[in-house]
Amino acid sequence: MEQAQKAGQPVSEYALTRSEIQRTLVATAMLGKAGIHAASTGIEHEDLPTDENGDRPDKAVVQREVMETVGAFLQENASLFHAKTAVVAGLGATMNRTMSWASEPLPEGLTLDRLLEDVQWEREAKYWGGIAAKVSDRGTVSFAGGARDSGHKVYDALNRPEGVAGKQIRGWL
């Protein structure tokens, strides 16, 4: 609570924002890109994709894999709890590619850490402008859009390092 007050935000607004970010990250880690649109709704086991036999992953497996992946990433990147929802949505959908039930798994030999190692997480226009942020004529940055507005753009930038947006968020332009 003190952190929220120091940041100049009412405590309830800070808690809602943190809760929204956590929910978005877990929903997108569970559902992948489909989670970008489902992050603000209730998620049921039936929302998980089925495999070629029509089976869904075990609930315990889903819980364990999501918590391990999200927990490990946030342990090293705790400052992302101050990231905006669109960035977190794209990140969670990218994390989904490491799950055993992923419909679009990472290519063999590519790890999440390797894919994300050069991403510049700072909230700066040069990295996120036009992807997760809007930049005004005066150069001010607004992350006002949510997961649905920019989550797919973030996902594409995170997962396609060779693309223009992928290079931008990595500071390669």
Brief description of this entry?
Helix content is 51%, strand content 2%. It is mainly α.
- Largest beta sheet: strand ordering: 1-2
Portion of residues in beta strands equals under 5%
What does the main sheet amount to?
Answer: 2 strands, antiparallel
- The value of Rg in angstroms is 16 Å
Helix content: 40-55%
Shape: globular
- What is the typical, i.e. mean, pLDDT? 85
How are helices and strands ordered from N to C?
Answer: HHHHHHHEEHH
Number of strands: 2
Number of helices: 9
Distance between the termini: 39 Å
Task: Give the uncertain stretches in residue-range form.
Answer: 1-7, 9-16
Structural class call reads mainly alpha
Describe the structure.
It is globular and about 55 Å long. The chain has 9 helices and 2 strands; from the N terminus they run H-H-H-H-H-H-H-E-E-H-H. The termini are far apart. Strands 1-2 form a two-stranded antiparallel sheet. The protein has helices at 2-6, 11-31, 34-38, 59-76, 85-96, 112-116, 125-128, 147-159, 164-169, and strands at residues 134-135, 141-142. Helix 2 (11-31) packs across helix 4, helix 2 runs parallel beside helix 5 (85-96) and helix 5 packs across helix 8 (147-159).
